[in-house]
Amino acid sequence: MDSNKFTSAGAAHQNTTRQSNVDLKLKLNKFKMLPVTVEFSGGAELLCGNVKKHDVDLPGQQNKWQIRNLLVWIKDNLIQERPELFLLGDTVRPGILVLINDADWELMGELDYELQEKDRIVFISTLHGG
Amino acid sequence: MCNVEDQERNGSENLPVSSSGKSLTGSGCVKCGEPGVLVTRIHDSFCKSCFQVYVVHKFRSAIGKSKLIRDGETVLVAFSGGGNSSALLHLIQDGLSLRAHKRLRFTPTLLHIDESCISGVRSDELRQKREKIRQIMIKSGFPSYWTQLEQSLNIYPELSSKSMSKSKSSENPASPNSLWLTDLGQEPAPNQVPDDPPLEESRKLQDLIKSFKSSTAQEDFIHNLRNQLLVAAAQQLGFSKILTAESSTRLAVHILSDIAQGRGSQVSLDTGISDERNPGVMFMRPVRELNAKELAMYNSLFGVDTVFMPTLTTKTSIASSIERLTETFVTGLQADYPSTVSNIVRTSGKLGGPDVKRTDKCSFCQSPLDTDVGKTSALGAVLFSQHMSRPKMVDPKDNKERVSDGPVYSNGTHTPIASMPNLKEALCYGCRLSLHEFDGDTSMLPTLITKRAMWSIQERQKDELSGYLLEEDVEVNGVG
Amino acid sequence: MPRKCGNCTNNAVLKRPKTGDALCKDCFYWAFEEEIHQTIVDAGLFSPGDTVAIGASGGKDSTVLAHTMKVLNDRHDYGLKLILLSVDEGITGYRDDSLETVKRNQQQYDLPLTIVSYEELYGWTMDAIVEQIGLKNNCTFCGVFRRQALDRGAMKLGATKIVTGHNADDIAETVIMNVLRGDIARLRRCTAITTGADGYLPRCKPFKYAYEKEIVMYAYFKQLDYFSTECIYSPNAYRGYARTYIKDLEKIRPSAIIDIIHSGESLSVKKDVKMPQQTVCSVCKFVSSNEVCKACVLLEGLNKGRPRLGIGKTHKERRKWEEDLAEEASRLSLHNTAVSGSSDCGQGCARDEVNGCGSVFVGADEDDVNGDGRRNGCCGGTGSGGCGTTQRENRMPAQKVITARTTMRNLLDF
């Protein structure tokens, strides 16, 4: 088994967080997965099958994970319907508040913020009532 | 043609400035320098405790400035379970707690209106949400009531004509309504748990709503229905004030959508600190100086539990209704021009309201009628246009040309609302607009509207005939 | 099966955006024209014998306006004398073409035409202005100047009223804009069908309730000649948002435009809100809310190379300017006039009473004795000499100077 082959193969399978992959990656100690928590509320959870809290392991990759690519990942993996109600262009729709570890993302660099392990990203929709 | 020529005379070209994209990363709190947790007021950052002080201050000053709530008064708080009303509840609890600086001097009673029938779906998910809301209300420790939107069909309007008010005042001021309002504080009995509303009633309401042809008209109708239900419930329970939790963002959206629906005269009532349209019951909006982001942040920082109930236009496209479109417009503009919401709300603050003590009010929303505008007006223009575009039918009795109301569809039928042609005379411009899109039978309309309309028309006829009637206090509404 | 016209028995060719009714061509023409007639009559816009200047830009609104006014004037015997009045802002490419259209309109409708130009009135074309200040805020200049240009042109022709082609969409857009900006004063005025009074020309909008779509349809079916293009100097981006919003609203509910106008008409302002007072500009005598009217302030800025004067907070800009000038004065140690409190420096320079003398640099070479670009003996516009201060105290009106670039001409000259 060629270790190179596995590394590139591991990076290619983005969706699945299988135990075997994790073990392999940890063994190879390359491209660690990034465990973060993504939460939705204020109605945004309706777009994710009504699940408010998602503990995810972002697949390891060469470049750092930023909010920018987290959004793309969320669109591909967590959003089940009507992505246009969540995203607009490469950022979130106006009216959706983003908190990184309980702080306004505007104070953390918005899209450029680099994710750390165990970060908690919360998306709160302020549209529509209350 | 370039439309700029209207920049003239006083020439203050005060266009809002776009947010410069200034980076705020790592900014400290503007008050104390601690690390900030959010950015608001354009580009001020606040730390958690200074933010709390800020929010509480805005809440207390909105109430205090208005000087409308007396010490020891009990007020009804409309609680939907969503973000805004949860924040309001938390602020009230916080303000009543012993450690609060200058405790609040009123006590709240919570009221929830179950609107789950609108989505037309009866599901476990919705039941769970309802249960959660009920838990939150009980946990608050405040007296709590539960009712359903279906009850709005059971409201019997209170008579407020001049002749009746004298005799009424000596009686119990509460209206003769008997709405179904559950007191959540009592021991839970099998039928006290907020069940699904009776199927029959839900169907009736759903059919009524579906008879409005556009989402815009449906939303507008539901909005007014909800308000009237709140008023009726308050009257039945003996409250004279209702607190609602609209944020400034929500109000800015409402201002524009009101204007877009011809409700310009009601803007100050719909969005000001208080609204006294309804006799005996006043609405107040204590969190109107806080925007949506601030309230959401407050909830998040202080662990406030919220339950999101889907509404009519949840998950629909952006242009499904005027309210939705406006919301997208305002929040989008706010993102680039952070003073948008405050500008809009400030504008409405400068608008005067119509005199709410007038007796000619809309039979539905109770706003003073704004349709007495003469021929040189938008209303006059529309009527004339209709006149020019359709075959004319002159009603010889009242010599008014009766043109078929509402859009004429290809088969040219009259909408059934023509069977009660005077109904629209008793409605304001905005309610007329919504009713235009109603193609059900007038018997489907809530008694609330039809009764009031009938009374107001009779009142008007009586006025026209005054001086010729021999009996001074002839009962106009004989059978009632 | 084709739909029938709602009014007669012919086949319908269009659906009216305003009411959703289907009409045939002739019924539509009739409805459109008679509605304008009704608006004019109900609002009492004209009296027989009025001379009415039609603001003609060559665009669809003004072409249809000219046509309709002519038709109604004849059909209903208004007894009006109609003239076409066009403004040349001096924007190459844009204005040239539209002016050609207006000239053709003159032929087509057989109406007399007068053209007034910014160049002639103010000494600046829009091209020159944009060159000076770039593309930001140029709309401010154009708007202010155009408004005055129309008034001055109309007065020159002896007109008693001006009509413009503002349609329902324009007014709705203005209402929304004013709400967004928090401009209470304009919000109150913008839905009035006639604006202006107090001795200045009333300006009416007979198309106030006419939908833009219907105007376009009318022009299309009647094959009226018009020029439609956007101004090349990008229009106000903020207004674009309001416009998009209105268009989207119209798609959801076509009557929204009229509804917005109704809202605008029903708004009332609180009694204690301060409204700007109307007074007269001290320089050019035109009506103004301030001591010096906006056009004069803008021109002053242009002429002295401080084009931001009049944009944003005037007093801040002016203070900054005075600081700069004071600094420069002390650096160059100019020879100031004696601080003797003499009441008149007597140099005959064009004065703007707010700034003291020398505030407008007049480029007539024979006056430049020292060859330093300034008048002999005067403070050179710093306002820091005794002359400038005294001028302010004595409040002498601006002298009229005929040179290439100048301040606003006194209104009475026309």
TrEMBL record, chain A:
1-thioglycine modified-residue sites: G130
Keyword Cytoplasm included in the entry's annotation: yes
Keywords of the record: Cytoplasm, Isopeptide bond, tRNA processing, Ubl conjugation pathway
One Pfam family hit: Urm1
Posttranslational modification: C-terminal thiocarboxylation occurs in 2 steps, it is first acyl-adenylated (-COAMP) via the hesA/moeB/thiF part of the MOCS3/UBA4 homolog, then thiocarboxylated (-COSH) via the rhodanese domain of the MOCS3/UBA4 homolog.
Protein name: Ubiquitin-related modifier 1 homolog
Pathway in which the depicted protein is active: tRNA modification; 5-methoxycarbonylmethyl-2-thiouridine-tRNA biosynthesis
Organism encoding this protein: Elysia crispata (lettuce slug)
TrEMBL record, chain B:
Disordered: region residues: 1-25, 163-200, 391-416
Protein name: Cytoplasmic tRNA 2-thiolation protein 2
Family to which the UniProt record says this protein belongs: Belongs to the CTU2/NCS2 family.
Species of origin: Elysia crispata
Gene3D superfamilies for this protein: HUPs
Any Pfam family matching the protein: CTU2
Basic and acidic residues bias (residue ranges): 1-11, 392-404
UniProt GO molecular function: nucleotidyltransferase activity; sulfurtransferase activity; tRNA binding
SUPFAM superfamilies: Adenine nucleotide alpha hydrolases-like
Automatic annotation (TrEMBL), chain C:
Family: Belongs to the TtcA family. CTU1/NCS6/ATPBD3 subfamily.
BP term (GO), one: protein urmylation
UniProt organism field: Elysia crispata
Pathway: tRNA modification; 5-methoxycarbonylmethyl-2-thiouridine-tRNA biosynthesis
Lineage, opening ranks: Eukaryota, Metazoa, Spiralia, Lophotrochozoa, Mollusca
Coiled coil: none
Compartments where located: Cytoplasm
Name recorded for this polypeptide: Cytoplasmic tRNA 2-thiolation protein 1
Keywords tagged on the record: Cytoplasm, RNA-binding, Transferase, tRNA processing, tRNA-binding
